[in-house]
C-alpha cells in the first residue's frame, strides 16, 4: 500500500479503542509505521518552554557543553557533540549535536538505567525536561495500550515492559547547513526502540520513506506529535508492525537556519526479553543487549 501523507488520529479516539479506530491504526502501523497524534494533551506552554531551554543549552560555548559529554556511557545521559552519531551502514556522520534526558530513577528501576545530569548553567533545565519526559512517557504508554489491542493483547500488556523503562528524551540541534554537497542532517535510519514520539519541529526537514521508496515530507510547526514504530517493536511482532526509514534534510543550504527537535524514544526496561509476542518463535535478546549492539553500530561507543 502506498501513501503520500501520514495518517492522523486524535488521542481521545485512540484511547476509546473502538473497532474502527483500531482497524485504521493497525493499517497505518502495518503499512506506514508512522502516524500523527492530534489533541494529545501536552500544552503549548510546556513545549514552547522546553524548546527555549533546549536552545539555551545549545547556545552555551563548546567548552562548557563538552564538560557534559560521557562517551564512556555511549551518551546515555548528557551531551553528544556534533558529528558523532553515524547512521547504520553510513560513513558520514549526522550533522547534529544532542542531549539525552531520562526518567527520575529510584530503586524500583533497573540498576543499568543511568541518572540524569544537571546543567549548572541553566538552573531549571532538569525540572523542565522532567515535566516533558513524564508527559511524553504517559502519552507513549497510552499509545502502547492501543498497540497491544491491535496485536490481540490486553491493553496493559506493555505496562511492565515500559512504564519504568530505559526511555530517552533527546534534545537535538541541527546547526545551519552551509555546504550544498551534503544536505542530509540525519541520514536515512530506523529507530532502535519500541515507539518514538516526536513533537513538532520548528523547521521542516523530516521525511518518511513510503513502501515505493519515495520520501514524504512531514510538516513542521505542527501541534501534532508524530509517532513511529521502532526496531524493537518490529522485532517482537515479527515485522507485523513496520519500523520505517526516515531522515532529516535541509533544502536551504546557503540560507539555512538551525533546526531543533525533541524526539522521545520509548524503551523497555533493560531486563525485558525481546522475543516474539505473535508466534511461538523462541529467538530472544534482552533489551539491554539489543540497545548496546545498536549503540556500537551507530558509533556512540
The number of domains is: 1
Taking the alpha carbons of the first and last residues, their distance comes to: 38 Å
Assign the CATH class: Mainly Beta
The topology string of helices and strands comes to EHHEHHEEHHEEEEEEHEEEEH
State the helix count: 8
Query: Which strand order do you get reading across the main beta sheet?
Result: 1-2-10-7-12-5-4-3
Query: From the coordinates shown, what is the CATH architecture?
Result: Sandwich
Which residues form runs of ≥5 with pLDDT under 50? none
Strand content: 15-25%
**Tertiary shape:** globular
Fraction of residues in H or I helices: 25-40%
Cα radius of gyration in angstroms: 18 Å
Q: How many E-type strands?
A: 14
Biggest sheet statistics = 8 strands, mixed
CATH topology: Jelly Rolls
Average pLDDT metric: 91
Write the layout of secondary structure elements.
Elements: E1 8-10, H1 11-16, H2 19-31, E2 34-38, H3 44-58, H4 62-65, E3 78-80, E4 97-101, H5 125-150, H6 159-162, E5 168-174, E6 184-189, E7 195-199, E8 206-209, E9 215-217, E10 225-229, H7 231-236, E11 246-249, E12 259-266, E13 273-275, E14 284-286, H8 287-297
Parallel strand pairs: 1-2
Antiparallel strand pairs: 2-10, 3-4, 4-5, 5-12, 6-11, 7-10, 7-12, 8-9, 8-11, 13-14
Helix pairs in contact: 2-5, 3-5
Amino acid at each position: 500500500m502506498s501513501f503520500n501523507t501520514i495518517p492522523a488520529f486524535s488521542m481521545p479516539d485512540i484511547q476509546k479503542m473502538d473497532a474502527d479506530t483500531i482497524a485504521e491504526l493497525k493499517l497505518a502501523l502495518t503499512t506506514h509505521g508512522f502516524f500523527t497524534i492530534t489533541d494529545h494533551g501536552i500544552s503549548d506552554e510546556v513545549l514552547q518552554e522546553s524548546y527555549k531551554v533546549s536552545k539555551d543549552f545549545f547556545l552555551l560555548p563548546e567548552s562548557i557543553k563538552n564538560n557534559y559529554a560521557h562517551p564512556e556511557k555511549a551518551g546515555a545521559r548528557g551531551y553528544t557533540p556534533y558529528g558523532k552519531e553515524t547512521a547504520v551502514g553510513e560513513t558520514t556522520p549526522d550533522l547534529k549535536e544532542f542531549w539525552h534526558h531520562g526518567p527520575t530513577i529510584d530503586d524500583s528501576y533497573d540498576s543499568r538505567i543511568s541518572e540524569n545530569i544537571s546543567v549548572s548553567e541553566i538552573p531549571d533545565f532538569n525540572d523542565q525536561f522532567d515535566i516533558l519526559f513524564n508527559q511524553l512517557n504517559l502519552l507513549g504508554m497510552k499509545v502502547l495500550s492501543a498497540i497491544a489491542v491491535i496485536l490481540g493483547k490486553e491493553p496493559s500488556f506493555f505496562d511492565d515492559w515500559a512504564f519504568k523503562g530505559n526511555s530517552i528524551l533527546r534534545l537535538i540541534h541541527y546547526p545551519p547547513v552551509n555546504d550544498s554537497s551534503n544536505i542530509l542532517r540525519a541520514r536515512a535510519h530506523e529507530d532502535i526502540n519500541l515507539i518514538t514520539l516526536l513533537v513538532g519541529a520548528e523547521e521542516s526537514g523530516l521525511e518518511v520513506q513510503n513502501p515505493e521508496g519515495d520520501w514524504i515530507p512531514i510538516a513542521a510547526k505542527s501541534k501534532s506529535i508524530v509517532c513511529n514504530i521502532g526496531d524493537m517493536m518490529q522485532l517482537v511482532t515479527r515485522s507485523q508492525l513496520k519500523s520505517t526509514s526516515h531522515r532529516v534534510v535541509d533544502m536551504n543550504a546557503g540560507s539555512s537556519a538551525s533546526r531543533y527537535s525533541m524526539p522521545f524514544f520509548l524503551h523497555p526496561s533493560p531486563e525485558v526479553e525481546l522475543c516474539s509476542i505473535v508466534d511461538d518463535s523462541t529467538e530472544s535478546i534482552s533489551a539491554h543487549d539489543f540497545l548496546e549492539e545498536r549503540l556500537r553500530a551507530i558509533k556512540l561507543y
